[in-house]
Amino acid sequence: MTRFRSVQSRLTRIFTLAGTALGVAVLLCATSGSAIAAAVQNNTNNSGERLSQFAAAAQEFGVPANVLIALSYNQSHWQASAGSMSMDGGYGLMDLRTYVPTKVSGRDGTVKNIPKKDASYYTLDQAASLLHVSPDTLKNDNQQNIRGAAAVLAETAKQLNGGKLPSDTNAWYSAIAKFGGAAATGFADSVFATIKSGASLTTTDGQSLSLPALPSIQPDRNSVSALGLAAPHTQAQPRADLPGQNAECPTTITCRFIPAAYAQNSTDPADYGNYDPAHRPADMPIKYIYIHDTEGSYDSAISHFQDPTSYVSAQYVVRSSDGAVTQMVANSDVSWGVGNWYDNMHGINIENEGIAAEGATWFTPAMYRTNAELVRYLATKYNIPLDRQHILGHDNISALTTARQGRQHWDPGPYWNWNYFMALVNGQTEAQATAAATAAGTPVAGPRTGSTQLKKGDIITIAPTFATNKPTVTDCQTGTCVTLPSQGANFVPLYTAPNTNAPLLSDTYLHPDQSAGTTRDDDWGDKAPAGFKYVVADTQGDWTAVWFGGQKAWFMNPVGRAQTAKLSCSATVSAKASRTSIPVYGGAYPEASAYPATIPPRALDALYQIPSGQSYATTAERLPTDYFYDATVNYSKPDDHMIVHGKQKYYQISFNHRIGYVKADDVDIRWQP
What we know:
Blueprint: H1 21-27, H2 33-42, H3 45-61, H4 65-76, E1 90-91, E2 96-97, E3 103-105, E4 111-113, H5 123-131, H6 135-140, H7 142-160, H8 173-179, H9 184-197, E5 199-202, E6 208-211, E7 255-257, E8 263-264, E9 272-273, E10 275-276, E11 288-293, H10 298-305, E12 316-318, E13 325-327, E14 334-335, H11 341-345, E15 347-352, H12 365-382, E16 391-393, H13 402-405, H14 418-425, H15 430-439, E17 459-462, E18 474-475, E19 482-483, E20 491-493, E21 527-529, E22 533-540, E23 543-548, E24 551-556, E25 563-565, E26 571-575, E27 581-584, E28 608-611, E29 615-618, E30 623-629, E31 642-654, E32 659-663, E33 667-671
Parallel strand pairs: 7-13, 11-15, 11-16, 12-15
Antiparallel strand pairs: 1-2, 3-4, 5-6, 8-9, 10-14, 12-13, 17-22, 17-25, 18-19, 20-21, 22-23, 23-24, 26-29, 26-33, 27-28, 30-31, 31-32
């Protein structure tokens, strides 16, 4: 669900804590004030700065420091993403929210406007008024962002407490719940769970921060009823449409069911969110699982999917800290996750709490383990192959139209460890998965050639060694490009010639002016992702070229380190000999003649062309065509929610960074021996 978020940080003045430890301890009452004060004083240099900013705001506004620190951990993982917006319109360490007019796509690409919420939801606007500072300052200045959250919390607490601040940390529960907006008590529960258990991590800008655990904390929920907020979501809930059915999860993970919104948003019954009831796999086969990141917190994602005007959803949301799962859409239904109706029809969406540009700070071992267990469970249930042609990122999904292809999302982005994750998915232990991921990229002798020497027409799998593969990655989502901190990445950069001084490969949808590709994290046109298969187009010394997006793409491949030779039979497709080129599509819809008169035929744009002489790896499965006609929320149109089936067949291919579909009638298929 990648939106516009970067990890650009702005350092603000350092608040010296000398002489304030007692004040913090008093503010925290009988809690962990001395422990937090010690943590602030013991964290030196860059790490101490951010903690001291929390302490300063706590003292200024009378808000417990551990409340501010835990709230920030749940909102941003203490990441200073200055000037960039999260999925819920929030900014900065405290995710202060403001209304941003945003157009979103409905279930079949229909553009909708997200309506404005109640004024109490927009904490950035409230903070700007209370502090008399500009919204831009609150977005970009870490200390002012923390002060803004503290001011809003304090003002809210006074309103709920007869004009006085609560005298005990436990009594801040209701103020935190209101601060969380639509996330309500679920958000407050998460903040207090963090206070109870403590937290620690190293941020992408090198700060090692920790919050001491406070096991004795007991939040006071008595006053929350006056807010009219939703009840806390702490237990698995039966689905309303299928009484008695709870979350569809393996028993080895912590999982609950909280339904995403399904409601009409206007007088038009075609205007509704956030998923479509279906009867999969009886009516549509489930063939794929899609991995996303939320570009915001766990609770904000859950809240977002509970708002029918967000026009987006996923089957599952996974928490970063411990891998806990919330299912929000039944697997039998179609969630609106990847911006491609055909792929949504046939897939299950899994959102992971995190921000793509910040990578390992959010993508934790617990999160990988949960995802792997969940994916393995779903793959077994729906007979989905455990490979990267069926376990995909949102960044591997094409759009259905040329207008949307350049705007397709790019999560989970360059820092999701596909090698490690897929090893876990395939049942390896954590130690084995770590070893497998470390070994990925080493030469492997295949029975086809007896060596790792490559030749034109061979099929290879991209598999860089994640831990040591650290290409330069930049982020420009705030308008200012910054180089991201060095960390393991899941792709190899692609060049137009076998030379690192050559231009990076360019995709026409990202660079319509035909300029060169870039190192930007959202520039997927010059990045070959781990696990994808490609056909060798050429070799030269330590360089290998593959067919990629209609072009010859070169990458450094000394002694096979960036790829492994294909060890089993695989298939390729190429344009029929009678054709100079053939189109690549983003889906596999039926031919126009298959639609009844009551349903408008859905045309597919030709996104790209495969010129004669090029070959692309394929799953070799002849895909049937279908289209789920979900016209209204109340089934009020003729043949509403009908499945249209066609006779035309397609093949799925690995085309560029994304998969594509080609008509079976357009291609010749060849099997590698």
